[in-house]
Design brief:
By secondary structure, the chain is an alpha/beta fold. The protein has helices spanning 40-48, 70-75, 93-102, 108-114, 117-136, 152-164, 182-197, 209-215, 233-237, 240-252; strands at 2-11, 14-24, 29-33, 55-60, 63-64, 78-81, 170-174, 201-206, 218-223, 226-231. Helix 3 (93-102) runs parallel beside helix 6 (152-164), helix 5 crosses helix 6 and helix 6 (152-164) packs parallel to helix 7. Bound molecules: adenosine-5'-triphosphate. Keywords: ATP-binding, Nucleotide-binding, Transport.
């Protein structure tokens, strides 16, 4: 489903991602972990299309996509939930989720605003999709509530539902559990697990090893922009290079 070969990206001459190889089969939930500054978000943005690589390639479903703009990747089925993403305040939960579908309709958001007949038809389709995605994330009962009124855990659910509205086949999640309380993390984990059971391929970038251990089929560990280990959660947790990278980060923090 996703193959990354020799991917490189530097900022001001310093490598953030250095010769990274990654292969994620269809239907797998892959976690990418690593200490602060390991290059996780950079890798995420190189796959999602927010950044261009200096070298190497990203192949998605047989197509080389590393020069494609992010909206083309979205249309091809790559859904993204960014680190620290915000909900649209002042809008309802349902409206927040509908925004996710506008990007993939032919008329887009502008068409929805001008309300031509075809756009009205698309608007109805979008509404249906949004309701379906809210149901998938267990948020239907909140559809007409102001999104600001929801606790942070459920706001993350709204972001997930918004990404699902684009009907992704590969879902990229950057630290979705950050800032959540233990019970909210558990709920989010259950939600992500359900998506995987539905057949979605998921790439989950996360700092917290415990969170991914329960969820991931396999884990790729980055440190200083390079892959230092890859395997099942049990394998990487026992890996000496991984332990050293995390301990080193704590000592220097
Ligand atoms: N836009 C940028 N401009 C300059 N340097 C950057 C930029 N983005 C990332 N970096 C640098 O690249 C390195 C990797 O950063 P990145 O954010 O990818 O790591 P990370 O593993 O996601 O860290 P965190 O867990 O803290 O989010 C860091 O040294 C960072 O300072």
């Amino acid at each position: 489903m996703l193959r990354v070969n020799g991917l490189r990206r530097s900022f001001d001459g310093v490598f953030a991602v250095r010769e990274v190889d990654l292969e994620v089969p269809r239907g797998e939930l892959r976690a990418v972990i690593g200490p602060n500054g390991a290059g996780k978000s950079t890798l995420f943005n190189l796959i999602g299309g927010q950044l261009r690589p200096d070298g190497g390639e990203v192949v998605y479903d047989g197509d080389r996509i590393d020069r494609w703009p992010s909206h083309r990747r979205a249309r091809a089925g790559i859904g993204v939930v960014f680190q620290g993403a915000r909900v649209f305040r002042g809008m309802t939960v349902l409206e927040n989720v509908m925004v996710g579908a506008h990007g993939v309709t032919r008329s887009g958001f502008l068409g929805a605003v001008t309300r031509a007949p075809r756009h009205r038809r698309e608007e109805r389709e979008i509404l249906g999709t949004a309701r379906e995605c809210l149901a998938r994330t267990g948020l239907s009962a909140w559809a007409d509530r102001a999104v600001d009124a929801l606790p942070l855990g459920q706001q993350r659910g709204v972001q997930l539902a918004r990404a699902l509205c684009g009907r992704p086949r590969l879902l990229l999640l950057d630290e979705p559990a950050s800032g959540l309380r233990a019970a909210e993390r558990a709920e989010l984990a259950a939600l992500v697990e359900n998506l995987r059971t539905d057949g979605l391929t998921v790439l989950l970038v996360e700092h917290d090893v415990a969170f991914v251990s329960r969820l991931a089929d396999r884990v790729t560990v980055l440190d200083l922009g390079q892959v230092i280990a890859e395997g099942t959660p049990t394998q990487v947790r026992a890996d000496e290079r991984v332990i050293a990278a995390y301990l080193g980060a704590e000592v220097s923090a």
